[in-house]
Amino acid sequence: MSGEHLGPSPSLAADRLAYDPAWVYLLRCTDGSLYAGWTNDLARRLHAHRTGAGGAKYTQSHGKAAVQLVYAEACADKSAALKREAALKKLPKAQKEALAADWAARSRLTLRMATPDDAADVMALYNWYVTHGTQTFQYEPSTEADYRQNITEVLEKAPFLVAYTADGRLAGYACAHPWHTRRSFAWDVETTVYCAHDVVGQGTGRKLYTALLELLRRQGYHNAFALVTRPNPQSDAFHKALGFTRYGVEKNSGYKFGRWLDLGYWAYPLNPPADPPAPVRLRLPDAEMAAVLAECTDA
Description:
Blueprint: E1 23-28, E2 34-39, H1 42-51, H2 57-60, E3 68-74, H3 78-90, H4 93-107, E4 109-113, H5 119-132, H6 144-154, E5 160-165, E6 170-178, E7 188-195, H7 204-219, E8 223-230, H8 233-241, E9 245-256, E10 259-269, H9 286-298
Helix pairs in contact: 5-6, 7-9
């Protein structure tokens, strides 16, 4: 109708960029043996091996819950992954061990506080989820300027952590924002964590979130809240394992890539409520922050 005022157009299924992941991997079992496999969902496959719910018979009989990921390699597609898996299985154990040692060295993480100069890397990591996933409801990619401002503003009140690999790749980031702007909410934060899509399931998110929550606790915040798009069973399990409790779900809260999505609300008690609460420490001493980050990196 002429002159009609309309809101934004919805994101349709065709707007989603295609992503068909394929991985080969090595797991170390409790007897020191190495199991080779392939998957199109590394995090889910690792969970299956460790719980026995759909995992391989070999890992079920060789440690199950204790098996450790020691090598992961992204492949172009399922066909390439199957060929690479077959090649891995034929390698002598010494060559498999060499692959695992090299992967461990390249993947070794350093956790540190972000600076505005990390904006380009953080933007690229986040924008992958904007264009490929529903973990964020955002439609349009962010800019480097957006993230320069975001990092600067976050660091005024809370940590903005980045995890870089030894070979210089940003593996993930975690940060916290005010839950609401009114003064009475000054002891509450909303937490966020994103891992690079090619390191999901490798423990990066746990290290980042563990460090973030401990720093927030030391600052004197009382509650951490997380918003999780549903369905996202991996993120649900991740938050539950870290001690969050889901206390509500907004049904059909957002629309992206041609479907309605729910939004789950999760809460984590950082400190017991004090009456009255002491003001939050907006920045911890450098030595205290460094000790927390070192402990969580080595965990």
